[in-house]
Amino acid sequence: MPTLEQLLTRSIPELREIFLDRCRPVPKGLLEALENDNRYGAQQLARQIRKRYRSNRSEGQRLHTLLRFEIELWARGFALVAGVDEAGMAPLAGPVVAGAVILPQNYKLRGLNDSKKILDQDKRKELALQIKHDAVCWSAGFAEVEEIDRINIYHAGLLAMQRALRGLRCLPDFVLVDARRIPQCPTPQRGIIRGDALSASIAAASIIAKTTRDAHMLELDALYAGYGFASHKGYPTPEHCRALKELGALPIHRRSFGRVREVLGLDPIQTELFDEQTAAPDAAAVASA
Length: 289
Prior knowledge:
Strands 3-2-1-4-5 form a five-stranded mixed β-sheet. It is an alpha/beta fold. α7 (about 145-150) packs across α8. Mean pLDDT is about 90; it is low at about 270-289. About 50% of the residues lie in helices and about 10% in strands. It contains 13 helices and five strands. The radius of gyration is 24 Å and the shape is flat. It has three domains: about 5-60, no CATH class; about 70-215, Ribonuclease H-like superfamily/Ribonuclease H (Nucleotidyltransferase, domain 5); about 220-289, no CATH class.
């Protein structure tokens, strides 16, 4: 790294490229020198660097808070804590997919959050790749359309979670689950309401589940042209509902869902046959999965 005196001889665009674009560590004394520089560009660069410092501190605090459940479990001796979450409960087509992830202790990944809050698909993919690289282990589990129609969407979601958990190459000491309890779970578990927004492990699992399912729906889009699966991923958007009515139902459409049954001319399923929480699955908002 050049000395402070050498850095101060460089142009403001050069310094901006080094310390903002490339995020290189700012040497001692440079920030103060920029703040005392008479040039407007130097003072503006100093303000931007200060802003980045504040943003980094805020993100660090958020990520530490996101680990509060894991930190408590690690302190109690549960070294391997798995997070489990699913994606794809509300769509009219395609499988439900669950992710299971064991993160390293005190793991902090900038931008890690509930997958529903990460609207940029490329950012989700980038985070998923980093999680897969860094995780102690990870897995994804599917429950197919036939299973959804046979056992209902709620239990199919649990089945996908079971499969994701069993797919981990190492047995966790404890499992954190988004708002549910996994049947026949071999280890202690805890369901956390809105866990994908409150636990780093569950948030990581939600990203794995979402990106895995999205990639699968892209494959289905190549098989079934005209339905728009690449864009809506099977959710009941106006585009999808219009294609369903005009082109008819596919083998990958969930025949236990009301809108699909209507297109097929089938009677509605009696919702009293299901638990309260499983009735009318296709009425859920698109953003809920």
